Amino acid sequence: MYTRQLSLASLALLFCLYSAPAVKADEIAVWNFNDSNLIVDRGQGTLTTTATNIMFLSGTDFNASMGDPAGLALAIPGGANLQNNGSILELHVSTLGFTNVTISWAWQRSDTGFNDDVIRESFDGTTFQGFSFSAIQTNFWGGNHISYGAGSPFENNPFFALRITLSGATSEAGTIRFDNIVVTGTQIVPEPATMLMLGAGLGGVAAEVRRRRRARR
Description:
single chain; 217 residues; alpha+beta; Jelly Rolls; 7-stranded antiparallel β-sheet; 12 strands; 19% helix; 35% strand
C-alpha cells in the first residue's frame, strides 16, 4: 500500500515538472512599423502619439526581432511652427506573468530633429517618472535598452507604460525616427517548493481514490 502511494505521488510530481513551461525570454509586444501604422505587430499593447503629421519612412533591422526586415519606421517631424516640440510617444503593455522585463528600440534623428527628449516610466499607467535622454544618434541608427530586474514594480504588472516626450527640434522638417520597439520578459513559473507541494497533494488524492475503491470491494 505505501509503495503504491509513493509511486503515485512520484508520478504526479514528474507530471507537474514536465508540464511546467520552460524559463525563457519571450516577446510581450513588438512594433516594427512595416505596415505603416501604430498598431502592435505581435503580442498585445498600444502605442499612441500626440504629434501631428507623422510619417513612415525607411527603417532598419537594428534591434529587429524574429527576422523582421528593415522596412519602414515611424518618423515624427518638428511640424508647422515646431508644434510637435513637447509631443509625446506613449506605449502601454501588460507585463502580467513576466519578470526581467526589457524594452528596447532603434532610433535616429536628423540634424534639426528632436535632440532633448525625456523618457518616463509608469507602473500604474497614469503617474510617470523618468529622466532626460539626449544622446540620440544623428543621421544613423542607434538604440536604447532599459531593463527591469526581478522585484521591479514594472514586472508582473498589467499597467506598465513608457512615455517619451520630444523636444529640441529646430526646423519643421527635422525628424526623429523610431523602429523595432520590442518588449520582452521571462515567464514566471512556480517555485520548486510549490511544485513539490502540488505533486504531494496530487499523490495524496490519488492514494485516497485508490483506498476508497478497495474499501468498496
